Amino acid sequence: MDEAKLHAFMGQLVTDMGGGAMWASVLIGDELGLYRAMADGEFVTAEELAQRTNCNRRLVLEWLCAQAAAGYVETAGGRFRLPEEQAMALANEHSPVYVAGGAQVLASLFLDKDKIVAAMRGDGALSWGDHHPCLFSGTERFFRPGYRAFLLTEWLPSLEGVVSKLESGATVADVGCGHGASTIVMAEGYPASRFFGFDYHAPSIEVARSRAAENGLADRITFETRTAKDYPALGYDLICFFDCLHDMGDPVGAARHAYDALAPDGTVLLVEPFAGDGLEDNLTPVGRMFYAASTFICTPSSLSQEVGLGLGAQAGEARLRDVFKEAGFTRFRRASETPFNLILEAKK
Ligand SMILES: C[S@@+](CC[C@H](N)C(=O)[O-])C[C@H]1O[C@@H](n2cnc3c(N)ncnc32)[C@H](O)[C@@H]1O
Fold it and tell me: For residue 172, which of 150, 188, 187 has the smallest C-alpha distance?
């Protein structure tokens, strides 16, 4: 045994355990409005923060001490402040780097532990809809900042000839749309176009409909409970899959249906988690996060459906290209990327 390696590994585990505990702290800080109440960047005492948020002073102090130890807040003379950069990540839902919604996704991993233990001892299946509901709103809140930041400015412009169609009036399908965050961003950006959001999870479609109504977009977005293989083939100019193809049991069947449902010169926009093609490429901080979440969420979701291909959240471009080739598409390319996403374009 190499004692130095053991010490290094114990150091890593303590850091990771602290990270796990801190994300539970982020979860409550987000829910209780503690970060938002510190978003002005001014120093506060625990007493003042407790008053602002209507929380228990002693527990707020303990929470602040953990935040300070983690470097999430600064402390001096018994007071605490949330720096502007941390506020962007943890307090401001409109910032492009807001990640606090991810705490709800992580919470679902723990809350659904017994179901995953049963799936691992059985057929591996756990359907999207059988997770704790915090996964559904967590997914919306975690992904929406990226859609707001990149979809109109980078991802759609990276596709061949799509923006001009959207500007003059296109028909768009958002498949596996969840709560419709991406559909709403696109509908706001392109008022001449018509949007259809489909997801097989009926409660998510209910929420998506209410989001469309709240944003005054109900006349241009139709949300319907449909699988990726049975939505109406309207000859769409654009069919999008945002972070959902790998959750499907039959991605080839979904791509084949998209092929049939597209206009002759239509485009598929496929947004998937960033990944290289081999395991060695994905042994990274982002890769470990996606593989771990995929064990609980994405892979069991796929295994719960017909075919059960189980692509996983780290499928990579080459495997995704094979899916689209098998479905009949002749053109497939990486149009753009971010540290978290691959942006892929498929055409007939
Ligand atoms: C990770 S979520 C992404 C949701 C949404 N696209 C977003 O970016 O916020 C995956 C979604 O795929 C949906 N889904 C999984 N399999 C599906 C299928 N076969 N047909 C339609 N939707 C499916 C789930 O219900 C879930 O809403």
Answer: 187
Nearest CA to ligand 1 atom 6: 177
Q: How far is the C-alpha of 228 from the C-alpha of 245, rounded, in Å?
A: 9
For ligand 1, whether the C-beta of 73 sits within 6 Å is no
* Tens digits of residue pLDDT in 182-233: 999 999 999 999 999 999 999 999 999 999 999 999 999 999 999 999 999 9
Is ligand 1 within 6 A of the CB of residue 199?
A: yes
pLDDT of residue 178: 98
Beta bridge partners of 195: 172, 221
pLDDT by residue (tens digit) across 321-331? 999 999 999 99
- What separation in Å is there between the alpha carbon of 121 and the centre of ligand 1? 25
In order of their start, the domains of the chain are 3-91 (1.10.10.10), 103-347 (3.40.50.150)
Going from the Cα of 217 to the center of ligand 1, the distance in angstroms, rounded, reads 21
192 CA to middle of ligand 1, Å?
Answer: 26
Virtual torsion, Cα 281, 339, 308, 294, nearest 10 deg: 90
The amino acid at 197:
G
Mutation to probe ligand 1, out of 225, 242, 244 (largest number of atoms < 8 A from CB): 244
Q: What predicted TM-score, i.e. pTM, was given to this entire model?
A: 0.97
